[in-house]
Amino acid sequence: MENGKNKRWLVYLVIFFVILAAIILVCRLSPSESGIDSNLLINSVAALFFTGMIALIDNAIRHWKNKK
């Protein structure tokens, strides 16, 4: 069971970096001037929030499946 948890954390880490890269890419490609000076801290917090939401949803689905 511990090995499965380690794999899940690795997946969440990869998801975090993919979301962070996507946010930065969208900010850089956005035509508005405000997107150019995007703050890395704000982008990291946003990516952490979205990754946390994915982790919570994944955890809830796993818990729901185990109850069945």
Structure in words:
With 68 residues, the chain is mainly alpha-helical. It is built from 2 helices and no strands. It has helices at residues 2-29, 40-67. Helix 1 runs antiparallel to helix 2 (40-67). The chain is elongated. The mean pLDDT is 86.
List keywords for this structure.
68 residues, mainly alpha, 2 helices, elongated
List the helices and strands and how they pair.
Elements: H1 2-29, H2 40-67
Helix pairs in contact: 1-2
The geometry reads as: elongated
Tell me the β content. Answer: under 5%
Count of helical regions: 2
- Using only CA atoms, what is the Rg? 16 Å
* Weakly predicted, low-confidence segments: none
Percent range of helical residues: over 70%
Structural class, from helix and strand content?
mainly alpha
Mean pLDDT: 86
Written as H for each helix and E for each strand, in order along the chain, the element string is HH
User: Major sheet, described briefly?
Assistant: none
Beta-strand segment tally = 0
The separation of the N and C termini measures 19 Å
Summarize this entry quickly.
With 68 residues, the chain is mainly α. The chain has helices at 2-29, 40-67. The two termini are 19 Å apart.
